[in-house]
Every structure is written in structure tokens, then in C-alpha cells.
Design goal:
Elements lengths: L2 H28 L10 E5 L5 H9 L4 E4 L2 H14 L4 E4 L8 H7 L2 E5 L2 H14 L4 E5 L13 H14 L4 E5 L9 H13 L4 E3 L6 H6 L4 E4 L1 H4 L4
Helix pairs in contact: 1-2
The site of pyridoxal-5'-phosphate has 13 residues, from β8 and α9.
Length: about 230
């Protein structure tokens, strides 16, 4: 086998392994098969990875991907989408207001609505472009200064602003727990905020903790390294 086809094979293998672990975690958490309920969706995080490493995942039938930079995604995905039109692209990184239109044109879901200025810019741009994009509110559950997201105590008010005043199609919440802490309390907190706001979608859990996130009700897990290998 050439080096390239070897790597391609490894990526497909790791994808299958993650899918199996998700199925297992769902069965543990709910006693049900992942296909018979609202399934947990695997968001394959392809940031920094070139198209030829993404294609094996597409060829394996996977269709939901996360990218964290508008510009990088704009360079990779329009072409991939021509070959695989039924993909769903989710923005999982910080969004600058001057990139809002590009983001709406490329992404199906914006997971990182994290401040009023951005929420207003999204609402205005969706109106002028004549299209809606599903949104998640990013919550800074660890109250980390350097991290994006509304703080937990401000979440209810921000959700109401987005939904009621700006009519954004808010369908759920996302979080990135602090690197050096047990993620479980953060997942639990995100679940509580979602529940009291009657939101059904919870994007939480990454390569290191997606099985834990599923135990706490994740509907979407964002997994990069465990599928694509380490990022350089
Ligand atoms: C990079 C990234 C991930 C994936 O992280 P891995 O540890 O590689 O699985 C998930 N969510 C966000 C927001 C990211 O930026």
C-alpha cells in the first residue's frame, strides 16, 4: 500500500471506531440504539486538514463537518460540496462580524453565536440575504476570560434577545469546557440552561470527552483528532 492510501485507510478506520463508540455510549446512556431515537450526530471537525484527508470521510458516507475558520472553509468546501452536495457544514469557531455574510453563504449552522453585536449582525445579514441559518448559542460555562461565549448567568437573557428580539432560528447551545477540568459539570450546566429555555440541541464533547458528553445528553459531538489524527 502506498503511504497515501495507507493514511486514507487509517482515517476511515478511526471514523468507524468513533461511530462505534458513539453507538455504545448512546446504548449505555439510554438503553436504545443510536438509530432508533433522535440520533447523536457526529460532527467531524476537519479544521487544518486538506481536502484529500477529508475525502475518505466523505467516501465512507459521513456528511456532517465542523470548521472553525470562515476563510479556510471557504477555500476547501465549495469544491467538496460540488462532489458531495448533501453535506452539512457547521461553524464551530469564533465569528467576526465582518465575515458574517461569508459565513451565512457557506455554513448551514452557526454554533458560535456568543455576543449581542454578532447576533444583530447575523439577523441583519440573514434578512438582507433572504435566508435563515440555524444557530447555537455558545456558553462560556467555565467563565474563562480568554474564551468566547456568554456567561451562564447571562445566557437566559441572551437567548431571549436572539430568539424574540432578533428572530434568529436558535435551536440549541454549545460549550467548550476548560481544558484542565472535569468536563462533566460543564456538560450538566449546559443541559440545565437548555432545558429551562426549552432548547433541544446540545453541541458538546470533543475527542477526549465525547462519550461523557453523551451521558449528559449531547445531541452533537465535535470530534477532530480522533478521526483525522493530530493537527500540526
Ligand atoms: C478543534 C475543535 C474541536 C475538535 O477537537 P478535537 O480535540 O480534535 O476532537 C471541537 N470543537 C471545537 C470548537 C474545536 O475548535
Amino acid at each position: 500500500m502506498s503511504q497515501d492510501s495507507h493514511d486514507t485507510h487509517r482515517i476511515a478506520e478511526r471514523l468507524a471506531d468513533v461511530v462505534a463508540k458513539i453507538d455504545h455510549a448512546v446504548r449505555d446512556a439510554t438503553g436504545q440504539d443510536n438509530q432508533t431515537r433522535d440520533p447523536v450526530t457526529l460532527v467531524a471537525v476537519s479544521k487544518t486538514k486538506p481536502a484529500d484527508e477529508i475525502i475518505p470521510v466523505l467516501k465512507a458516507g459521513h456528511r456532517v463537518f465542523g470548521e472553525n475558520k470562515v476563510q479556510e472553509a471557504t477555500q476547501k468546501w465549495p469544491q467538496l460540496r460540488e462532489a458531495f452536495p448533501d453535506i452539512e457544514l457547521r461553524l464551530i469557531g469564533h465569528l467576526q462580524t465582518n465575515k458574517v455574510k461569508d459565513a451565512i453563504n457557506l455554513f448551514d449552522v452557526i454554533e458560535t453565536v456568543d455576543r449581542p453585536k454578532l447576533a444583530r449582525a447575523l439577523a441583519t445579514a440573514m434578512k438582507s440575504l433572504g435566508c435563515k441559518r440555524r444557530c447555537l448559542i455558545q456558553v462560556n460555562t467555565g467563565e474563562e476570560e480568554q474564551k468566547s461565549g456568554v456567561w451562564p448567568e447571562e445566557a437566559d437573557r441572551f437567548i431571549a434577545l436572539c430568539r424574540e428580539d432578533l428572530a434568529l432560528p436558535v435551536e440549541g447551545l454549545m460549550c467548550i469546557p476548560p481544558h484542565d477540568e472535569n468536563p462533566a459539570p460543564h456538560f450538566a450546566l449546559l443541559g440545565e440552561i437548555a432545558k429551562r429555555n426549552r432548547l433541544n440541541i446540545l453541541s458538546m464533547g470533543m475527542s477526549a470527552d465525547y462519550e461523557t458528553a453523551i451521558r449528559f445528553g449531547a445531541t452533537h459531538v465535535r470530534v477532530g483528532t480522533a478521526i483525522f489524527g493530530p493537527r500540526s
